Amino acid sequence: MKILIVYDSTYGNTEEIARAIGEAITGEVKVLRVGEADPSETFDLLIVGSPTHGGRPTQAIQNFTKRVPALNGAPVAAFDTRLSTSLVKIFGYAAGRIGKTLEKKGGILVKPPEAFFVKDTKGPLREGELERAASWAGEIAKCIP
Asked: Is this prediction's pTM over 0.70?
């Protein structure tokens, strides 16, 4: 199984989550920063992650998801890193927006978009988040034939 994990990261927290996800899934796994990823690459599963900035994914991730060709029922998943404040509830978050964009392209979300939490704007990740990311990845892998 070919898995493509595309992420953007400002302070390194989203990259840590992306790598933890990649290490937890077996198969041919590529974990690529968004600038290194080709949106037309073929895959069996696409996972996209971003930090939440102003309730949205980074501009680079928004541009990437817009350039992804029709997904035609391909399995997809989305995640973000964020603070756990009430402001996130007001402005929204990146993972849900990424997931909706991938669904509009014809992707099938295999799990609901997932949030991973940081302690402060620049991090670090809260304790247990890398393990939770690996567990989430394992759940995703169970959904792929």
From this structure: yes
